[in-house]
Write a structure and sequence with these properties.
CATH class: Alpha Beta
Strand order of the largest sheet: 3-4-5-8-9-10-11
Number of strands: 11
Largest sheet: 7 strands, parallel
Strand content: 15-25%
Radius of gyration: 18 Å
Number of helices: 10
CATH architecture: Alpha-Beta Barrel
Structural class: alpha/beta
Helix content: 25-40%
Oligomer: single chain
Number of domains: 1
Length: 280
C-alpha cells in the first residue's frame, strides 16, 4: 500500500508509514482508569488499522495498563506488519501523576507485564519513557540491552531525552527512535529532531497538536487551512510531516471521526513558503 506521507524503516527492518496512532487517550480522564466507552475505543483501534496505520504507540503507564489491554482486546491476533511500540519507566500514583522509576529491576518487570498484556512474545519497539535522575542512564539502558538479548524486545527507543542524553544512550546500545514533546508551538526539541534526521533515527512527536491548542487555529493557520480545504489540526500535522523525513507523528484520540480527520492530514502538501510562515 502506498501512503501519501511516505514511509521509513525503524531499526533497519520495521517499515512503517509516517503517521501512527498514539493510544494514550484511549484511557479515562487524567490518563487514569478505563475509557468512558470501551466500545468506542475498540472501534478507534480497529478503524486505525483499516485506514492503514501500522504503528501504534502506547505505554504501561497509560491507564495504567488500560491502553495495552485495549490494544490486545481490539486487535489480537495482530495483522502482519503492525508495529506495537510501548514504553516503561513511569509509575502512576494517581490521575495526571507521573513518577519516574527506571531501575533495571522495575524495567524488566514492566517489560514482562507489557508482553503479557499485549499477548506478544517480543515487543518491536520498547522505549525508555524518561531519564530517571536517581538511576544512572547506563543502568537503565543496560536493562533494555539485557531484555533485547533475551529476545523480549527487538529495538530500543528513548523518550523525553535531550541530545546529550541521547548521545550517552547511544554509547550503550543502538537507539532507533526518540519520542519527545514537539509541535508547531513547542519546538524546544528542534536539536533532537535535527540529530535524529542526521542519524536516520525515527522521531515520534507526542502532543503533536498541543492537546488541541493548535486545532483551535489562529489567523495564519486558519488562512492556510482554508487554502487547502483542511482543518487547522490537519495543517499542524502536515507541518510536522514536512519538518523532517524522519518525523512520525502519533496523534491520539478517542473518536473515530477525529482519527479519520488526523489520518487524512497525510494528503495535505504544504509549500515551502507556507511551512516557513507557520514556523514563525
Amino acid at each position: 500500500m502506498d501512503f501519501p506521507e511516505g514511509t521509513f524503516t525503524i531499526g533497519g527492518d520495521l517499515k512503517v508509514r509516517r503517521l501512527g496512532f498514539g493510544a494514550m487517550r484511549l484511557t479515562g480522564r487524567g490518563i487514569w482508569g478505563p475509557p468512558q466507552s470501551e466500545d468506542e475505543a475498540i472501534r478507534v483501534l480497529r478503524r486505525a488499522i483499516e485506514l492503514g496505520v501500522n504503528l501504534i504507540d502506547t505505554a504501561d503507564s497509560y491507564g495504567p495498563e488500560v491502553s495495552e489491554r485495549l490494544i490486545a482486546k481490539a486487535l489480537h491476533p495482530f495483522p502482519p506488519g503492525l508495529v506495537i511500540a510501548t514504553k516503561g519507566g513511569l509509575l502512576r500514583p494517581g490521575p495526571d501523576q507521573w513518577t519516574p522509576n527506571c531501575r533495571p529491576a522495575h524495567l524488566k518487570e514492566a517489560c514482562e507485564g507489557s508482553l503479557k498484556r499485549l499477548k506478544l512474545e517480543r515487543i518491536d519497539l520498547y522505549q525508555l519513557h524518561t531519564h530517571d535522575p536517581r538511576v544512572p542512564l547506563e543502568d537503565s539502558i543496560g536493562a533494555l540491552v539485557e531484555l533485547r538479548a533475551a529476545g523480549k524486545i527487538r529495538h530500543i527507543g528513548v523518550s523525553n531525552f535531550s541530545v546529550s542524553e541521547l548521545k550517552r544512550a547511544q554509547k550503550i546500545a543502538p537507539i532507533v527512535s526518540v519520542q519527545n514533546m514537539y509541535n508547531m508551538s513547542d519546538r524546544k526539541s528542534d536539536p533532537v529532531v535535527d540529530r535524529c534526521e542526521a542519524e536516520e533515527l525515527g522521531f515520534l512527536p507526542w502532543f503533536p497538536l498541543a492537546v488541541g491548542n493548535l486545532s483551535r487555529g489562529g489567523s495564519r493557520i486558519d488562512e492556510i487551512a482554508k487554502r487547502h480545504h483542511a482543518t487547522p489540526s490537519q495543517i499542524a500535522l502536515a507541518w510536522l510531516l514536512k519538518r523532517s523525513p524522519m518525523m512520525l507523528p502519533i496523534p491520539g484520540t478517542s473518536s473515530v471521526a477525529h482519527l479519520e480527520e488526523n489520518v487524512a492530514a497525510a494528503k495535505v502538501r504544504l509549500s515551502d513558503e507556507e511551512f516557513r510562515a507557520l514556523a514563525r
